[in-house]
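Reopening this ticket.

The earlier resolution said the output was attached, but the attachment link was broken on my side. Pasting everything inline this time so it's all in one place.
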Amino acid sequence: MKRMRITSKIRFTIFMVIMILCLFTAIGQITGFNIASSTSMSQYNCVEVKSGDTLWNLASEYKPDNKDVREVVYDICNVNDMQADDLTTGQKILIPVYD
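Inline output:
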């Protein structure tokens, strides 16, 4: 039986690190631990702003019972990349659908 000898410790260390990373990647793929999930809303209602509509009224109309209107207004502004006073008649905005 022939005994193996490590001639380069640096090369052996690099090889072992690569093999361990490959092993963890394979285990993650098989078990599904590497699947990312988003916490943001994935569904939206597209609403056309009518004359007299305010962001507060739209948020209170589409909000769930367990959510504060201010949070919904904040979410609408973030989704549409706008400020609360940027609302204009005829504009189409996205309103998040909460589960």
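Reporter confirms the inline version is readable. The helical segments are 9-31, 55-62, 69-80. The chain has a mean pLDDT of 87.
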